[in-house]
Amino acid sequence: MSASPILITGGAQRLGRHCAERLAEDGHPVIISYRRERPELEVLRSRGIVTLPADFSSEAGILDFIARLKGETSSLRAIVHNASDWAPDSQGDEAGAAFERLFRIHMQAPYIINLHCRELLEACGEPQRDIVHMTDYVVQKGSKKHAAYAATKAGLANLTLSFAAMYAPRIQVNAIAPALIMLGEGDDEAYVEKAKAKSAMGMVPGPGVIYQSLRYLLDNRYVTGITLPVDGGRHLR
Ligand SMILES: NC(=O)C1=CN([C@@H]2O[C@H](COP(=O)(O)OP(=O)(O)OC[C@H]3O[C@@H](n4cnc5c(N)ncnc54)[C@H](OP(=O)(O)O)[C@@H]3O)[C@@H](O)[C@H]2O)C=CC1
Ligand SMILES: Nc1nc2c(c(=O)[nH]1)N=C([C@H](O)[C@@H](O)CO)CN2
């Protein structure tokens, strides 16, 4: 029986792309979702990674993606809910719609996909099946500038507990809570120094530390319902 694919949502760039490429190098079939077509997707396709368009900002978009995913595969080894929008808080009339959009991406999409795709994970004939939620260190402390982002990631963190209890023992459900892993294109030197100083390790590690953490969860038969901090010791500062 051929191996079941691993799905990474939002896998066209940065952490998701890194993990997709490393998983493919490790011999796993990989499916990613993306929202915007771009040249980098051809590189992923050339490496045998299946790319499916998805926009999780509406329930219809979530359900449309699930239908196409089920047309692509009859089983899944794992689902990594990585898609995310680090949007700063909107002010005024925009605030409600912006909050709702982050709720859909960070909470409703993982929730509906986990419910509708349980059957794909159950159909996997391999010894282990996993769901991994990408949350964030700020779940623990909130954020003055990204309150809606932090709150919806906190909701995703709580869904980890519920789905771990619901799906045990056949499916393990865990979260990874990064802090600063990769910089954004517009980050200037002052921002970098300030951001690095927030953790005890004082560094910007890059996406390899996330793949190491994902690998740990995918390879460990006895871990479920946990959140793995990958934050350089933010709590120590
Ligand atoms: N980078 C970091 O330092 C940190 C990251 N994290 C978390 O780790 C994960 C990966 O981070 P990172 O790689 O920086 O993520 P990105 O900000 O690069 O976002 C990942 C992908 O999410 C997709 N996405 C955004 N909105 C939607 C939507 N409405 N529907 C479908 N897909 C959407 C984007 O797709 P497209 O590009 O195709 O539009 C994007 O490629 C995220 O969950 C993030 O919150 C947490 C803390 C720190
Ligand atoms: N979807 C995203 N979420 C987050 C990002 C990002 O680039 N995309 N970046 C961060 C920052 O690195 C933050 O951790 C710095 O303190 C948080 N979430």
TrEMBL record:
InterPro entries (UniProt xref): NAD(P)-bd_dom_sf, Sc_DH/Rdtase_CS, SDR_fam
Domain of life per record: Bacteria
Keywords: NADP, One-carbon metabolism, Oxidoreductase
Pfam families named in the record: adh_short_C2 (PF13561)
Catalytic activity field: (6S)-5,6,7,8-tetrahydrofolate + NADP(+) = 7,8-dihydrofolate + NADPH + H(+); 7,8-dihydromonapterin + NADPH + H(+) = 5,6,7,8-tetrahydromonapterin + NADP(+)
Entry EC no(s): 1.5.1.3, 1.5.1.50
Molecular function via GO: oxidoreductase activity
EC class of the enzyme, as a word: oxidoreductase
Job description of the protein: Catalyzes the reduction of dihydromonapterin to tetrahydromonapterin. Also has lower activity with dihydrofolate.
Family: Belongs to the short-chain dehydrogenases/reductases (SDR) family. FolM subfamily.
NCBIfam families linked to this entry: PRK06483.1
Name of the protein described by the UniProt record: Dihydromonapterin reductase
